[in-house]
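Q: What structure does this chain adopt?
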Amino acid sequence: MLAVVPATLVAVLVASAGGMYIRMVAARGGVTASTWPLELPETLWVLWGAALFTAAMAYHRRRRSACAVCGEG
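A:
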């Protein structure tokens, strides 16, 4: 859990920051040809947060101990 909890927290923070940034870009009228190098990478933070969360859950599932009830790991 030492790796899963921080990774999950960072995934939630990164995804929410990406969502906020997408709303800010949309409120300003979208990405233009002159601003895309500065604005477009931040819009992908939502995907980065989702990928980090998926990786953290896969790590947790792979490293968890066997279930006390069913015996599966």
